[in-house]
Design brief:
Helix 8 packs antiparallel against helix 9 (210-227), helix 8 (185-204) runs antiparallel to helix 17 (365-380) and helix 16 (331-359) packs antiparallel against helix 17. The protein is 66% helix and 1% strand. It starts with a helix and ends in a 7-residue tail after the last helix. It contains 19 helices and two strands. The protein has helices at 3-6, 22-41, 61-82, 92-111, 114-132, 143-165, 167-170, 185-204, 210-227, 230-247, 252-271, 273-281, 286-290, 295-303, 309-314, 331-359, 365-380, 392-403, 410-414; strands at 322-323, 326-327. The model is unreliable at 1-18 and 410-421 (pLDDT under 50).
């Protein structure tokens, strides 16, 4: 029985649990490929590495853009193929995102700029694809979470391979980035932090063996440290803390880990404070740290742009999240620039909805994972652009939203929550 059929067909709770048949296995492969293509669509691409070095395997700009931009139509086609009956589940989360699409479409009609119109269609296609994947939301086997972990593992693998093949290119500028595919350090750090955080939370919930967790943390932790990205480190730590606190009253392992963690962190602060301070400073002076490496000057310029009433409410239309050639590096300021106050309010409502829904879930794995992802996205949104447009942050927030939805798959509802190993 295919996944799309099972999603709407009731079954007795006493029905025996059957192994997935060929149709369901095929559907799972298609959904996994669709998710991989969505991740590919939001990966950054430039014909060189982020520091300006040539790629190990040169990729012409036109070819790279065709790969990334063509991934979304391919993902939409696969979603339509695997969900032929166009079955969708009600989702307040995606409903709010659909309002954002309507809001940016109004701005695009006013702006009449090709880039803005293209990005609006891209966001609409992105959200439409996620609607078609809603039958796979809420599964107790965390299928979409595993898809995201596998996609991130592929990206991180090419980053690590580039590090060993051409250390100088991968570490250009003193920060680890992609040398095969031009993944910037901030995005590499996000993938490493999300991978490490998800695996740790799953291990706390006894879903991943300790050996797998140790190897994952060693690899992802190395990548995260080499990127020298403070936002990802802080967001990951806060996400794990919130997720752990949600389990601390019902999970003995969490209580033991937190006790050890307090002791280790205390010793590290007392003995390695100078090293930690130097790593966090990244060689920057007091002025650079105060203005967040130049971000505050760009933020001030974005706020002070002359606007009429329409632009205050609806913004200037979706852009590449830069101002005068400099990155805005704040989801909220970039959202205000592109989507106006309406976009900022809708984005805040989306985040609050997912957070509140996760908070009121029963204690368990789904709640902990959703809280980790939402906390990460919230903290990263202050110094990174993200979930108000098509991005990896939107995908991670979608994962959190999928975890708070109840399961409608009888085979998943009746099956005990087993290990991911």
């Amino acid at each position: 029985m295919s996944a799309t059929t099972v999603a709407v067909r009731p079954a007795s709770r006493l029905a025996p649990v059957a192994e997935p048949d060929a149709a369901e296995r095929s559907a799972r492969r298609m959904v996994r490929l669709c998710w991989f293509l969505l991740v590919l669509n939001v990966l950054t691409f430039y014909p060189k590495t982020w520091s300006g070095e040539p790629l190990i395997v040169p990729i012409p700009s036109a070819v790279g853009k065709i790969i990334t931009q063509g991934a979304l139509p391919a993902a939409l086609f696969i979603a339509l193929t695997v969900n032929r009956r166009k079955l969708i589940r009600p989702s307040m989360y995606l409903g709010l995102y659909s309002l954002i699409v309507v809001e940016v479409a109004i701005t695009a009609l006013q702006a009449k700029h090709f880039g803005t119109i293209y990005r609006t269609f891209r966001l609409a296609g992105f959200v439409g694809t996620l609607w078609l994947l809603t039958p796979w939301f809420g599964r107790k086997d965390f299928f979409l979470v595993k898809c995201h972990l596998q996609a991130m593992a592929i990206v991180l693998a090419q980053v690590v391979l580039g590090f060993f093949v051409s250390h100088s290119r991968a570490m250009g500028g003193g920060r680890l980035g992609g040398a095969f595919w031009p993944t910037p350090p901030t995005q590499v750090a996000e993938f490493a932090a999300i991978t490490m955080g998800l695996v740790i939370v799953l291990w706390l919930c006894r879903q991943v063996p300790g050996r797998v967790t140790l190897l994952t943390c060693a690899g992802a932790g190395f990548v995260l440290i080499e990127t020298h990205t403070r936002t990802a480190l802080v967001a990951m730590a806060a996400g794990i803390l919130i997720a752990g606190l949600s389990l601390i009253s019902v999970n003995r392992r969490v209580r033991k880990v937190f006790t050890w963690a307090v002791g280790i962190i205390t010793v590290a602060i007392l003995t390695l404070s100078s090293f930690l301070t130097a790593w966090l400073a990244r060689g920057e002076g007091t002025q650079e740290l105060t203005n967040l490496t130049g971000r505050t000057s760009v933020w001030g310029a974005v706020v002070n742009i002359p606007r009429n009433l329409f632009q205050v409410i609806f913004g200037f239309g979706l852009s590449n999240k830069s101002f005068n050639g400099l990155p805005v590096d704040s989801n909220w300021l970039a959202c205000y620039l592109d989507e106006g106050l309406a976009g900022v309010i809708l984005s805040a409502i989306v985040l609050l909805f997912v957070y509140a829904s996760a908070f009121f879930l029963p204690q368990g794995k789904s709640r902990a994972l959703a809280l980790f992802l939402t906390t990460y996205v919230l903290i990263a949104s202050f110094t990174e652009t993200g979930f108000s447009d098509a991005s990896t942050y939107l995908l991670e927030l979608t994962l959190a939203a999928s975890l708070i939805m109840p399961s409608v798959f009888p085979s998943e509802r009746d099956r005990p929550e087993g290990s991911l190993a």
